[in-house]
Model the fold of this input.
Amino acid sequence: MDFEKLAERLIPGEYPSLESFEKQYPPRDLPAKAEVTRLAPSPTGFIHLGNLFVAIANERIAHQSGGTLYLRIEDTDLKRKVDGAVEAVIAALDYFDIRFDEGAEIDGANAYGPYYQRRRAEIYRAYAKDLIRRGRAYPCFCTEEELSALRDEQTANKEITGYYGKYAKCRNLTEEEIYAALDAGKPYVIRLRSMGDASHKFTFHDEIKGDVTVTENDQDVVILKSDGIPTYHFAHAVDDHLMRTTLVIRGEEWLASLPIHLELFDVLGFRRPKYGHNCSLMKMDGESKRKLSKRKDPELSLSFYRQEGYHPFAVKVYMLTLLNSDFEEWHRKFPEKPLEEFPFRISKMSRSGALFDLDKLNDISKTELSALSAEEMLSFLREWAFSYGTQKEQAYFTDEAYLLKVLSLCMGIGGKKRRKDFITAKQAMGEIGYFFGDYVQKDGYRVDIATRDAVLRKFLETYDPSDDAQMWFAKVKQIAAELGFAAEMRDYKANPAAYKGSVSDVAEVLRVAVTGRANSPDLWTIMQIFGEARTRTRIAHAMAE
RNA sequence: GGCCCCGUGGUCAAGAGGUUAAGACAUCACCCUUUCACGGUGGUAUCAUGGGUUCGAUUCCCGUCGGGGUCACCA
Done:
């Protein structure tokens, strides 16, 4: 068969020589151990936690080694395209401090582009044409129906499904048959002529999983679809070679197609990159675990965390604790150190899939937020509120000096111990609502109404906003004693039967009256922040209720 | 179903041929405390299973079971 002629017929025209591509995209001038990694999303615009997980690993490895992280858009499937998706992806990752050095929509760093696969059609076609010339690729005219009939037959016969060996009908078409089909205008795809033998197994070293057993590929996979656009496999090989990727960290779901990729790299004469197949993040689904899926888990999309007001830093810390198990200890030991200083190792990544644990994220969020200054907390809340908050919440920011006081109190700043009341911006805004006129009677009173009113009346009688905390509390104790409650906790515990209750019951009346809830930070400080007028009004209201 | 990956408490996990099998989250109890939160102390709870190898296996080997992934002109 005249492959030269076939190649010209299938992919007509002049293409740059493969050598010229090598020259145009030379190996990068980077330090010896530098790794070039990439993120290659399809432009659905949807990113979830699992993507962030892989993204962080890629980012850390690249930047820690003095290498490069670039963004490539895998838009070979039109059905997946969503407008504005690329910007959305960049923005979503930027929120978590993942920045690209190069790639799609990254100004001034496009030497290895274009980074949209649709714009690389010529390059793929040049390589495909070369494969045809060499007899390593051929046209296939099988229809979808024929293919699925083949699959059914193979399934029925308990054979491996796919287009391979004797089942690869078009593999051995004669020259006449091919041209006849072409002349008839039949649509076709270009398939790889695989030289592999599925009975051959070999071990392959995966950077994360260690040595894995791999079966040689014998599938004549499609490399160019009928519209002339490459499949993922082919584009992966061509792009990652030409863009000089040194390390491919990707989801475990790709492990199964690794043999295809290896054969492609080999047949194209490319040096194979290193691979690291990362276990997927799992989620509990009823009784069983399952991989995070964009279909079923919209609540795990990155935008969900942003909307809920999780601090990006906290999310990143959580991801890192899952990624490298000694990170947590390191971070605890050096809370001030930037995350970048942590010695991230791909070899420390877990071989098994981790279950996403919201409790753990919440715990991390609490401690990370508690480490913020009041000013930092304020600007974090502000940013959230003006994107996702209610109008009422946005109004909290009209008096930022006041807000700052509230936050300092709620975070325990200046006290001996930091409080850890805040988990997310959304939750925090709800938590501080009572400082802004949102009096909701969240909790009831433990004592009867008569006692309640007696406490409140007595409090109002002696209340002096210039009292310091000690004086203030002494008065509360006084009220307790007058009404038959133990002024000292110790006394009450020693002999509970002797009292109607303790000073804590009395304090609770005041707390509920003023804040609407049984639990709050220091009450005296709250009254200080409120000021006399507001405190008195609030208590008067409580008595009337 | 074939093939591949994985299997230490509820979760994330360290670990090593001989350990009281770390730590964190969750949970429970107590302490601190005017409430809550924080903090402190302590507790419950783990080597999937069967068989080898070995003086000794959770660790090494094989089978079983369980979980996951994958079998497209989707990535």
